[in-house]
Amino acid sequence: MSGPTGIDALLERVRGGYRRVAPLAACDAAGAGTALLVDIRYAALRERDGVIPGALVIERNELEWRLDPQGSHRLPEATGHDLRVVVVCNEGYASSLAAESLHRLGLHRATDLIGGFQAWREAGLPVTVS
Known about the structure:
A four-stranded parallel sheet has the order 2-1-3-4, with helices on both faces. By secondary structure, the chain is an alpha/beta fold. Strand 3, helix 5 and strand 4 form a beta-alpha-beta unit.
């Protein structure tokens, strides 16, 4: 019997199940309408750092309920299991686990943003600060 899995090993295993996307590629896909950016950061981070224009904000604890195409609490954007979702967290860790959870719901094109919001901002991509 093997021991518990640490978070680093879990992230490596999860990320091996899909192709992650870099900030510029995510921006291009969102701009072309071929991907839905979903910001799962909590409100304090969005208030402090800003948001990605056009990204759908769904806090992590509601993600599966809002994006499950078969769910009774889904958002209009949850159009089907072929939806390409790019999950964005602050630094690209929680988003990996969230993308894997979406895969379990059948959203087979779900992925996450390498480096998260911080990498997006560092790449000089659009950010709206309130």
